[in-house]
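Input C-alpha cells:
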C-alpha cells in the first residue's frame, strides 16, 4: 500500500497512456486495424486511473483523521506537535531515531489523551520560547527513552505515555 502513495503508479500510468497514444498514431498513419484493441486499452487505462484516484483519496482521508490528534512540526530527534484540543505546542525527544510506531500519550499541555500517528503531517508553527520542565520516560521492553515537555506553558501534572514509539508495545512507559 505504501507504494501506491508514491509517484510510481502515476508515472507508470502516464507511460502507458503515452504508449497507447503512440500505437493510435501508428494505427492512423498505417491503417493497421487495431481500433478495437486500442479502445480496450484506453478503457482499461481509464479504469486503472479511477482505481488509483480512489485509493489515493481513501488514504488521504485516513491520514487526515489521524493528524487531527497531534501534528509534527520539526524533523530530527526532537519533534514538535500541536494538540488539536488545546492547540498547545509540546515537544518529544526520542533516544532512537528511526522509531515510527504510533504513540498514545497525554497532551503535556492539557492532559487529554491522544495518538500521534506513525507518519504525522508536517505543519509550520512558531515554537514558543518558554519551555516547561521535562518528564522522562523509559520503555521497560526495549529501553527506548523519551523526554516530553510543554512549550509556552507549564507541564500538565499527570503526563503518561501509553505506548512505545520504538517497539510499539502497548504498555505504559516508566516515568523517572
Ligand atoms: Zn492539549
Ligand atoms: Zn519499547
Amino acid at each position: 500500500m505504501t507504494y501506491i502513495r508514491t509517484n510510481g503508479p502515476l508515472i507508470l500510468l502516464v507511460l502507458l497512456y503515452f504508449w497507447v497514444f503512440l500505437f493510435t498514431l501508428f494505427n492512423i498513419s498505417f491503417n493497421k486495424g487495431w481500433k478495437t484493441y486500442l479502445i480496450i486499452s484506453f478503457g482499461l487505462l481509464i479504469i486503472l486511473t479511477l482505481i488509483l484516484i480512489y485509493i489515493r483519496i481513501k488514504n488521504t482521508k485516513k491520514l487526515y483523521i489521524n493528524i487531527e490528534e497531534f501534528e509534527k512540526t520539526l524533523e530530527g530527534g526532537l519533534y514538535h506537535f500541536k494538540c488539536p484540543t488545546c492547540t498547545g505546542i509540546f515537544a518529544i525527544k526520542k533516544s532512537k531515531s528511526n522509531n515510527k510506531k504510533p504513540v498514545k500519550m497525554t497532551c503535556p499541555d492539557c492532559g487529554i489523551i491522544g495518538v500521534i500517528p506513525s507518519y504525522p503531517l508536517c505543519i509550520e508553527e512558531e515554537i514558543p520560547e518558554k519551555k516547561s520542565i521535562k518528564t522522562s520516560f523509559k520503555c521497560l521492553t526495549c529501553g527506548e527513552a523519551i523526554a516530553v515537555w510543554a512549550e509556552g506553558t507549564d507541564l500538565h501534572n499527570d503526563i503518561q505515555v501509553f505506548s512505545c514509539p520504538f517497539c510499539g508495545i502497548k504498555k505504559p512507559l516508566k516515568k523517572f
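Residues 83, 85-86, 88, 107, 109-110, 112 surround zinc ion (ligand 1) (CB under 6 Å). The chain has a mean pLDDT of 83.
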